Amino acid sequence: MTTAAHARRRLAFPLLFVVLWSTGFIAAKYGLPYAPPLTFLLYRFALVAALMGVVALASRATWPNTRRQVAHIVVAGWLVHGVYLGGVFVAIANGMSAGMAAMLVGLQPILTVLLARGWLGERVVPRQWLGLALGVAGVWLVVWHKVAFTDNATALTAVLLALVGISIGTLYQKRHCSHVDLRCGAVIQFTGCAIVYVPLVFFFEHAPVRWTPQFAFALGWAVVVLSVGAISLLYWLLRHGAASNVAGLFFLVPAVTAVMAWLLFDETLGALAVAGMVLISAGVAMARQTRDAPAP
User: What is the pTM (predicted TM-score) of this model?
Assistant: First the structure.
C-alpha cells in the first residue's frame, strides 16, 4: 500500500467507523420490540460466524495455530461482543432510555485511557486530559434531555457491564490479537459468543421471535453493517493506532446517533445538543495523540 493510500485510510476509516457504530442504537430500536435481547444477539452471533466462516474459507485466510492465541481471541470476543452488546441490549430492553445508555457507554474513552496508561504504557499528556473532559461535557449536552435515571437495577448493572466490557475488550484486542487475521478472528469470536449465549437464552428467555420485516432488517443490518463492517474497522484502527486515540472516537457516537434519531424518528435536536457536538469534536481533536504510540 502506498503512503498516500494509507493516509487516506487513516482519515476515512475513523469517520466511517463512527457513522457505522452509531447505527447500533437505531438497529436496536428497530429490532428489540420483536425479540428478547439475548435471543436477538444469539441470532446475530451465529449468522456472523457462518458468514465470516464462508469468507475465511473462500479467501484461504490464515488461521491461528496455537490454543493460546485462540483463547486470546475468544476472550476479546466475549468482552467486545458478548459483554458490551449484551449489556446495552439488556439495559434498553429493561426500560433504560437510549440516551441514558449512550451517555454511560460514552464514558468509555475515559476508562480506556486510564487502562491504556497502566496496561499498555501509553502516555497521556495534559492536553489529552482536557480533551477527554470536553468530550464528557459534550456527551452530556447531547443526551441530557433524553436521560431518564432509572431505579431498574438490572438495566443499570447491564449498561455498566457493557462499559467495562468494551473498555477492557478493546485493550485486550490490541494487546493480544493485533496480528490475527480479521476474517478468522471474527469466526472464532462470534462462535465463542454464540456458544456462551445458547444456555443463557435457554434458561432466561422464552418469548418467541416475531419475524417481521422490521426485525429482519434490524438483524441483517446488525450482522452485515455492524458486526462485520464496524467491528472490522474497529480492529483495523486498534491495529494501526494508539488505543487512547481509538477510544476518543467513541465520544462522537452519541452525537451522531442523536442526529440519526432526529432524521429518522423526528427526535428533538436543540441548540445545546449542537453545542455539545462542537465540544465533542474539539475534545476528540485534543485527546488524539499527535503521534501513535508503538504497538506493545
Answer: 0.78
